[in-house]
Amino acid sequence: MAKLVGLYTEPGVVTEHPGYFDALKDTVGLTHILMAGYTLSAETRVKNPLPPEDAASVPTPGSDDDGELLRALDIAHGKGLQVWIRGWGWHGYAGRHPSMCAQDMLGRPLSEVPKLRYGLEQDSIAFCPNHEGLNEYLRSAYVEMIANYDVEGLNLSHCRYSAPSFLHTLFGCACERCQAVAGDQGYDFERMRGSALAFWDRLHNLDAATVRAANEHGWGLADVSQWLGVDTGLVDWFAFRARVITDQLRSFKEALVAAAGADVVFGTDTFPPSFAMLVGHNYRDFLSWSSYTSPLISHVEIFMLATLASSAALLCEWNQGLEESDALWFVYRLFGYDHLGLPETLDALGVGTPDLEACYDKIYDIVSLELRRGRLYNDGSIPSYPVIKGTTWPKATVQRLMQDADALGHDGIILQGTDSLLEYPGI
Ligand SMILES: [Zn+2]
Hints:
There is one protein chain. By secondary structure, the protein is of the alpha/beta class. 45% of the residues lie in helices and 8% in strands. It contains 17 helices and nine strands. A seven-stranded parallel β-sheet has the order 7-6-3-2-1-9-8. Strands 4-5 form a two-stranded antiparallel sheet. It starts with a strand and ends in an 11-residue tail after the last strand. Zinc ion binds at residues 102, 128, 130, 173, 175, 177-178.
């Protein structure tokens, strides 16, 4: 069976440059395009929980006119391409709406956390994923998108908590809604809160000499768990966060099956495997409901490097005497990045440098590592379609990663951009 080759695009690109897609069929074997451009009914729009003046900042807002999408669908299908319609989940503009924004363990909206040096995703914060009004709106929108358009699947993005470069996000959402859900599921919220706050306190009081010695001698998960006091409450907390995301997505799937049949193709992109649990993505759980996993490993700077840099910078800020190189090495080791030869200084790591990914010499090593982990995290019971950049990164890097994905047994690949692979006028 031919492997999937997908491309994130827009209806206007299809209608204005139909030949571009023929060229992609010839050069990379394009089989699928993923695009939005739908309208939503008045019945769904009235469910939008945001105030009318800011209604468009809801995840999956829909557009005013779907004419271009309908023309693009005809063109794509005429070329033998399949189309997945695109929607979005909780991570987004919640900072504008404190009552709906994810909150930390102290009841503070995460939008109120002071700006961090490398907190690249701090301006886009997740809504509480247990907000009933928002979830009802999203459910209606997704059902309409799959039922009202001639598409072969529904692909979501941003169905997660904020990225971990914004470290405080790990301790939300802990709002009253989420506390109630935790209780219903049998979790002891107060124990989880106590463990999380104690852990947070330990991160503020690390012994610099111990970090250095541990880096020198090497340590594993069992060592770190003892030293940092990872207890039942903390493990429960991360399990609960991921269960919230899984349960909501599964409930959306059930609504889609009811509307479009059991063979409906539905899934979301999945955070880079090494960091996935920190945004509530548990690959193992996804195997039980999703049509596929789709490791979103295209955002090396924002998702991977910024998490490493931000964590190391915060540990240095909080712990007197902790050397930057020791903090970085500690963080590299926590995420299994310590064998990649990454820099020993935050400046050399380069987060925030313009066009970093165009010239970063570790792009291949990092993406290749996540490709391998993404394949291992998915046991093969559902397909795996990693997302990589087809732009910004050098052509040889993109081509090598596509070959790696194939060789590793991924079931296809989804491209973000194609500049590195194909020069096409107007694109
Ligand atoms: Zn909440």
